[in-house]
Amino acid sequence: MDLSLNQTRVIGCLIEKEITTPDQYPLSLNSLTAACNQKSNREPVMGLGESEVQEILDELTKKRLIKEEVGFGSRVVKYKHRFCNTEFSELQLSEQALGIICTLFLRGAQTPGELRTRTNRLCKFGDVHDVEKVLLNLSGPENGSYVVCLPREPGKRESRYAHQFSGEVDISDGASSDFGFTRKNTVHSQGAREDKDKVESLELRVTELERELTSLKAQFTEWLE
After folding, report:
1. DSSP result, 94-113
2. Phi, psi of 76, deg, nearest 5
3. Among 45, 126, 141, 162, which residue's CB has the most CB atoms within a 10 Å radius?
4. What pLDDT, in 10s, does the model give residues 102-127?
């Protein structure tokens, strides 16, 4: 979809409020602007004006990702997303997948552990392994390659995941930008994608084995005591 940072912020806010405050959805321009500029659950924190948000809404309307509605006992125009899971959208996501994409839109690249914690108002995960399974599914080329696993940062145990609705993420050099990563629009070959998927699958397995080893060490220590 090649969405800008501001466009993903608007769509993410609409998805979030649709789930968490359905009685206040669709959102007016004023409410949507306030949601975009929240100081909590947002990264980066923004200071958009209503005129800027209106321009973003106009851009998204042209992309057929936003719908205007008038009514609900008010003459104020309100807005709802058509990003996914609507009769107008080809993109259909599960509750957990939608929670992950929404959170990536609102807070940028995150680890599976962070996503499990930060999606708790949008969907439910039994544990971090459930998050990893959904991420693996979302990263598969047969499912659209909607997310990608970023190179692990020095000193970090978990890799972060980023969405690819703003263009394909360039992970070749691990460079960072305002998004926490760089993006490119070139298309990798199918073989390269398959190799990347295998690496990501192995990384997830290594993380799982590390957790199991830590648990076994703790149990062994308790037994010795």
Report:
1. -HHHHHHHHHHHHH-SB-HH
2. -70, 135
3. 162
4. 999 999 999 999 999 999 999 999 99
Give domain status of residue 137, yes or no: yes
Q: How far lies 149's CA from each of 50, 139, 142, 211, 223, in Å?
A: 34, 8, 16, 19, 37
At residue 149, the 3 state secondary structure works out as: strand
Q: Is residue 88 part of a domain?
A: no
161 sits in the region (left: phi over 0; alpha: psi -120 to 50; else beta) called beta
β-pairing, 74-81 vs 27-28, is antiparallel
Boundaries of domain holding 74: 5-81
Q: What letter represents residue 225's amino acid? A: E
pLDDT of residue 117: 97
> What single DSSP character describes residue 165?
B
Domain count, the chain: 2
User: What is the crossing angle of helices 128-139 and 95-107, to 10°?
Assistant: 90
